[in-house]
Amino acid sequence: xxxxxxxxxTYPTQDDVRxxxxxDAGKPWWERVEGExxxxxxxxxxxxxxxxxxxxxxxxxxxxxxxxxxxxxKVKGYDSTSGNxxxxxxxxxxxxxxxxxSHDGDRDPVRMRIVxxxxxxxxxxxxxxxxxSGSDGGVGLHQRFSEEGWAGMxxxxxxxxxxxxxxxxxxISEMMMSANPGYTVLEMLSSGVAKAIEAKGSDELKAQWxxxxxxxxxxGAMVMTEPNYGSSLIDMExxxxxxxxxxxxxxxxxxxxxxxxxxxxxxxxxxxxxxxxMVLARTADADGNLLKDxxxxxxxxxxxxxxxxxxxxxNYVDENGNRVDKPDTNHVRAAKxxxxxxxxxxxxxxxxxxxSKGFIVGEVGDGLKNMFVIxxxxxxxxxxxxxxxxxxxxQNMERYVAEERKQGxxxxxxxxxxxxxxxxTMRAHIDAGRSIAAEVGMAFDxxxxxxxxxxxxxxxxxxxxxxxxxxxxxxxxxxxxxxxAIDQGLQAMGGAGYMREWGIxxxxxxxxxxxxxxxxxxxxxxxxATFQLKNMDAFLxxxxxxxxxLNADGDMADITTPLNTAINTFQSATDWMQxxxxxxxxxxxxxxxxxxxxxxxxxxxxYEVAAGTALAKNACVAKQKLRESATLxxxxxxxxxxxxxxxxxxxxxxIAPEHAMHYAKMTLNxxxxxxxxxxxxxTEPTLxxxxxxxxxxxxxxxxxxxxxxxxxxxxxxxxCR
Length: 721
Ligand SMILES: Cc1cc2nc3c(=O)[nH]c(=O)nc-3n(C[C@H](O)[C@H](O)[C@H](O)COP(=O)(O)OP(=O)(O)OC[C@H]3O[C@@H](n4cnc5c(N)ncnc54)[C@H](O)[C@@H]3O)c2cc1C
Description:
Blueprint: H1 52-65, H2 81-100, H3 104-107, E1 111-116, E2 122-127, H4 130-133, H5 141-147, H6 166-179, H7 181-200, H8 203-214, E3 219-223, E4 239-242, E5 248-259, E6 275-284, E7 300-306, E8 332-337, E9 348-360, H9 367-404, H10 417-449, H11 457-492, H12 495-498, H13 504-512, H14 521-532, H15 536-552, H16 557-585, H17 589-628, H18 634-668, H19 685-713
Parallel strand pairs: 3-6, 4-6
Antiparallel strand pairs: 1-2, 4-5, 5-9, 6-7, 7-9, 8-9
Flavin-adenine dinucleotide (FAD) binds near residues 222, 223, 230, 513 and 523.
């Protein structure tokens, strides 16, 4: 039983067309003056971005705090960390070029035209601004980015990649997100697709597609979401019907909201669109029978669907592999240009598949697991979307309140305590997010490439569990906190923040999606509460090791004391989840409701512990640096003093009150979740009961471990000594 054929869908109709987006609406004010030659205003202050601050931060973080050199020679890619630092410094020029065109989408958003294929079916083709695609004959951003080697920055050297480890490619991702988040999303997903092929694809698929994607001649798109299935992928309808050998098949269905699944930055010599779709689909056998797992759920498979069929040498072929003269576009049709809120230099379309030839990546039925290779890569990058955009806003906001706006005490806005509060909030969230992502990036690299001689199997398994619990936390925490920080940055700039010319308005819009895609944040929080509690001991053990070192430094008490209390609260929260999980397991519907209502607040408590510890580690190293040298240059002295002030602010003025609030909300909220004007159908309990059971078993283990920590080693007062 194959899914509805895509031909049943009616897109596109003329109503969906945006051939010529509202004339002039996207143009800046000086180009909207009647009868005059447009003249940009002469203003020095118009949205600026410099990657220098981030380069300094990463030098400190990776070299001094996380001791990245210790992985040298042990983990693939860390062969010469000085070379890795040179690469991220080399990226600075690219980041500046990216930022130069990041607003072109505001003025000239993605356009589309309707075309018909040979069967007379209508579809669309979308066009990025020329400065990105190069469609005006110039060197577009994508060409420059690819020619400098960045398209394959974390790809395997054997297939044309730069082999840059995550700790360093993360630094580049952050700069990319500051410079031009729209274009970055295209590259982020493309490199995720390459990673999935690298990790799960056959040798043939690797040889055929990796050099093409790593060189930027093709890009990759991640294809999961359907009109009725975004968060609930297991119920999707798109289906791949396998060929007799089970290695390839034909895809039927309709997917929506796809980033960069259709664009003109990689056009082939006959106008074909060189894009690879990585599609998640139900699986049917050659007779059309849906394959099910032992619980009766559809088996999902990951399918590589090229938008143009090629043989291994790059010749055009048809679906049977026979050479043809013209490109075979594989029955993939872009079906609708989605009119999104931001990320304007990048396209988002729906796609219809009408028997599109696809190649199975990994094992049949392992689709969701294999798609997680892309999703985990993307979740790290989306977390850094929050950090990168917040950093852009911070740079502009700090300059504005200290130099541009002459008002208030001493003629500067920065002298108001409320503005200082906003600056510290931004600095703390950015610094914490960056630090957590870099540390998780290093762990990620170690799990993938660790030399088994230097790690026991048990250590490697623990590291994997740490990565498993931290990856959703990175995505959730960095996007939640930085997005809220961006709002503070805009507020500090007042009206200038709201006007497009300062760039904050676009940043505000571009960052918002990060809390929605790659797993909507509330759904991620539910996922952690339900399925990741079994790995919570890996998180707590890591915090425990860090706190032991920090508590040993007698100079850190003003930062660690509130942090220790916060860890205590997190312990209580974990106990609460355990008890609630036990009640939920026994079928108590109130408990099921409470468990779900608590998830996001539990996540807040967990993230703040992680963030506070990361900032405290930075502060601890900064204190050492200040102690070591009495003759530091003023700039370095200020840099280290900022680390200490930020950690002190976060531990005392952010974590302490927020932990109290979230703990209260976590345990109380569910009691008041009533909508008297609606009859609420309570969540079907099976999944939650399953989740609660897993959670409960894991929590017993985690609690025992944590209790050991608090009682055995530190006394019951929760103070780490
Ligand atoms: C700009 C943009 C780019 C995108 N790019 C891609 C792409 O490249 N490829 C791709 O496949 N998809 C893409 N998506 C889709 C994106 O991943 C989904 O929109 C996202 O996963 C949410 O799914 P949904 O929109 O169906 O929301 P829904 O699943 O309908 O959710 C709506 C709301 O309900 C909440 N909710 C749902 N279930 C639960 C639950 N169990 N518990 C608590 N809350 C819940 C969610 O948090 C959300 O707030 C993109 C979306 C956008 C907007």
